[in-house]
Every structure is written in C-alpha cells, then in structure tokens.
Amino acid sequence: MTRLDSAIRRLTAQRDLLDWATSRISPQGLVLELGLGNGRTYDHLRSRLPGREIYVFERSPAAHPDCIPPDPYLLVGDVFEALPRFIERFGSGCAALVHTDIGSGDEEANRQLARRLAPLLENLLQPGGLLLADRAFELACCKDISSETGVAEGRYFVYRR
Amino acid sequence: MTRLDSAIRRLTAQRDLLDWATSRISPQGLVLELGLGNGRTYDHLRSRLPGREIYVFERSPAAHPDCIPPDPYLLVGDVFEALPRFIERFGSGCAALVHTDIGSGDEEANRQLARRLAPLLENLLQPGGLLLADRAFELACCKDISSETGVAEGRYFVYRR
Ligand SMILES: C[S@@+](CC[C@H](N)C(=O)[O-])C[C@H]1O[C@@H](n2cnc3c(N)ncnc32)[C@H](O)[C@@H]1O
Ligand code: NI
Ligand code: NI
After folding, report:
1. Listed residue (A105, A109, A110, A132) closest to A121, CA to CA
2. DSSP single-letter state for residue A152
3. B95 secondary structure, DSSP code
4. How far B54 CA lies from chain A's nearest CA (Å)?
5. Quick check: B153 pLDDT over 80?
6. pTM for the complete prediction?
7. Residue B83 pLDDT
8. Domains assigned to chain B
C-alpha cells in the first residue's frame, strides 16, 4: 500500500465514521471537534448536523476561511486549558459527540496526550455520548464499540459512554 | 460536497490517473515529478514503476523520510532554474511521463506558473510522452486527452505530446 493509498483509506474511514456517528447521535447535547486543522472534518460534521451547536478547539487556527467556525464556537488555545473552562461553563455530561484528531507523528507524545485527555473526555460525555478518536484511549466508564461501526480495524477508535 | 468528500475525490482521481498513466507509459524515457510535497504521489509512482528513473523537483523538501528520493534523483531548487539545466543535461524529449502538482491556492499565480512552465514541458516530453497536471495547460504540440482517461472532468488534466 502506498502513502497515497493509505491517505485515501484514512480519509475514507474518517468520513464513514463521521457519517455513522452523526446518524446515531442523541438529539440533545453539544458536539465537540478537537483540532480544526484544515477544517475538513469540521465541514463534514456541520453539513451532517445542521442546526446543532458544534464547538471547535484549536491552538493555532489555520483552516480555509470557509471552514472557520463562527466566533463563539471557535475556542482558541490549548485544549488542556480550554476544556476545563468549557466543562465549568456547560457542566459535566454536556457533550453528545466528541471527535478528537489532535495527534502528531510522534507516538510517545500521542500516548501522553491521550492519557491527559482521557479524564476530560469522560467528564464531557453524556451517558450514551460518543467519542471518535484517531487513536486508542483508556476510558474507565466508556465501552470500545469500534468493531460495531464497520470501519477498518485500527484506523479509528469509537467509544460509547 | 464537503471538504472531506472533496479531498477524497481529489486523491482518488490522482491515484486513478497515476495508475492509468503508469500502465501506458512507453518503455523508454525518464519520469519527472514536479513538486515532492509530502511524497505521496512520488511513493505511488515508484511503486508502480519499479526500476524506472524518477527525477523529483522540489524547492524545499519536507516529505516523510521514507519518501525522499535517493540523492541524484532529488533536484532541490526552483523548477524554473532546475528544468532548463535538466534539459541541457538529458536533452529535449527525454521524458516519457511528467506529473506536475505545484499549484497553490492562488489562482492568478497558478495561471502564471502554467504559462511559464508550458514551453519547458513541451521541450521535455518525448513524442507520445504523457503530462499529468493538476490544472489546464496550453501546449501547442500536445493533445488534451483528459477525456480518454475516465477521470472526472476538471479534476485532473492529461496531455499527450
Ligand atoms: C490533524 S489536525 C486536525 C485535522 C482535522 N480533523 C481535519 O480533518 O481537517 C490536528 C490539529 O490539532 C491542533 N492541536 C494539536 N494539539 C493541540 C492542543 N493541545 N490544543 C489545541 N489544538 C491542538 C493542531 O494545531 C492541528 O491543527
Ligand atoms: Ni475557497
Ligand atoms: Ni514512517
């Protein structure tokens, strides 16, 4: 498999999973996108969830201008500062769906990121809430339901609180 | 169509076209990749064309380490300096296949790039040689054969000298 094949597989898995999750999301609760990047998955989320409130967390926004969320929905800064403030504001269990894609090429850094993020994610998710992640997480009060989604194993990880 | 859909379409068109061209390439002649980027299309080209000489032109190499061409095949610098030297060295008509993907988001800059690049490309291509391009080119001695390739119209452009 070439890197071109692999990029196509990764983006296709991402799309399939966003489609899967947005068709199953509970009618109540906020949607969170961790990492705006170039705004592709945010654009997909908002097209699939018209009218839903989608909050985006990004350290250094650099997306295509069409894909920048309206002001109150873009939270600029490090997620480890922004998420605790967010939980204070909206309360534990405020989120119906969280998509996290803030990993880099550095596997050790990603592992540490996941460890630090895990308690915040558990705090955010409502019962039945879904987490989509670009890597595995250890979440005591969530169930790994990746295999229920039909997305190729190891490409993306899905948890239900 | 979301930006995620559109990215998948673009990469898929790129892969289909590289597969189309590499299965039709003439047995003689060099392969040129203008723009290494993250190395995805270079990786695909080399996997489809084992044993062929593939020259890559890149102003500022920043690809994944696995996707950096071996030293004599990576020509670092501006294509407008590197290509004339290349033609001096290997002669007119040295190339069987050229893939060019050096456009940016700036449409006016891309138009100018294409105008400056056109005479160099015509000079490089052997009779029957193929040009794959991320945008349209005006090439007096080439035929636009994009519609023969089956790739969605307007996604990619193909010319035969
Ligand atoms: C891979 S990109 C996201 C791509 C996006 N999902 C898409 O498909 O377009 C990761 C993004 O996460 C951001 N990021 C990484 N670590 C972060 C952190 N600790 N806090 C906030 N943003 C972060 C980076 O700046 C980058 O834009
Ligand atoms: Ni635009
Ligand atoms: Ni690697």
Report:
1. A132
2. P
3. E
4. 16
5. no
6. 0.90
7. 98
8. 3-160 (3.40.50.150)
